[in-house]
Design goal:
Blueprint lengths: L6 E4 L5 E6 L5 H14 L14 H13 L4 E7 L2 E10 L10 E8 L8 H14 L5 E7 L3 H9 L3 E12 L2 E11 L1
Parallel strand pairs: 5-6
Antiparallel strand pairs: 1-2, 2-3, 3-4, 4-5, 6-8, 7-8
Length: 183
């Protein structure tokens, strides 16, 4: 099962966070996190006014991820508040040519940027992926997201290509980079 057991993490400014898998009971905290991230940044797929995932569906997602041997959904918690999350999934476990590929998306609350949380979440991901059949991890990052691009390159990702006009945000097109890391 893909579960990250609880571990403590000390941020660069000495805030103690808990890193662990999402589980039933975290639905409201997850929802509040998504709403805050949508207000703080255009660097994710979350946007203000985005329809909520019903709480029952979140419970099912947390359970489904916990029961899957590769897929993973975990976060950084400050008490009961989610301050960062990462969702990882196998691209296609049934296809013999691509079952070694995993993809992820992650976000960190703006007030926690620069505190090492993104790198910690990625290290947990790499440790997990290394215990599975995954040997390639992929994602997309907005080309204008300098902090995100730096974080991924610092953690071993390479830019493999550019998706032109991948997002239309407030009437302006944004490119995205394809990034990948071989583990």
């Amino acid at each position: 099962m893909a579960i990250i057991n609880q571990e403590l993490f000390l941020t660069k400014n000495s805030v103690e966070l808990t890193i662990r898998s999402f589980r039933p009971g975290d639905e409201n905290a997850s929802k509040e996190f998504a709403e805050m991230v949508a207000k703080e940044s255009y660097n994710t797929l979350k946007y203000e006014g985005m329809p909520d995932i019903p709480l029952e569906r979140l419970t099912c997602l947390f359970t489904d991820y916990a029961d899957h041997p590769v897929n993973l959904h975990f976060g950084a918690f400050d008490g009961g508040e989610v301050v960062g999350n990462l969702r990882f999934f196998q691209r296609n476990s049934n296809h013999p040519w691509i079952k070694h590929i995993g993809a992820f998306g992650m976000a960190v609350r703006e007030i926690y940027w620069g505190q090492g949380i993104g790198s910690k979440l990625l290290q947990v991901l790499f440790n997990h992926a290394g215990s599975t059949e995954i040997t390639r991890i992929e994602a997309e990052v907005r080309a204008t997201n300098d902090r995100g691009v730096h974080l991924y390159e610092k953690n071993g990702f390479k830019i493999e290509g550019r998706r032109e006009k991948a997002a239309l945000i407030n009437g302006k097109f944004e490119d995205e980079f394809y990034i990948a890391k071989i583990i």
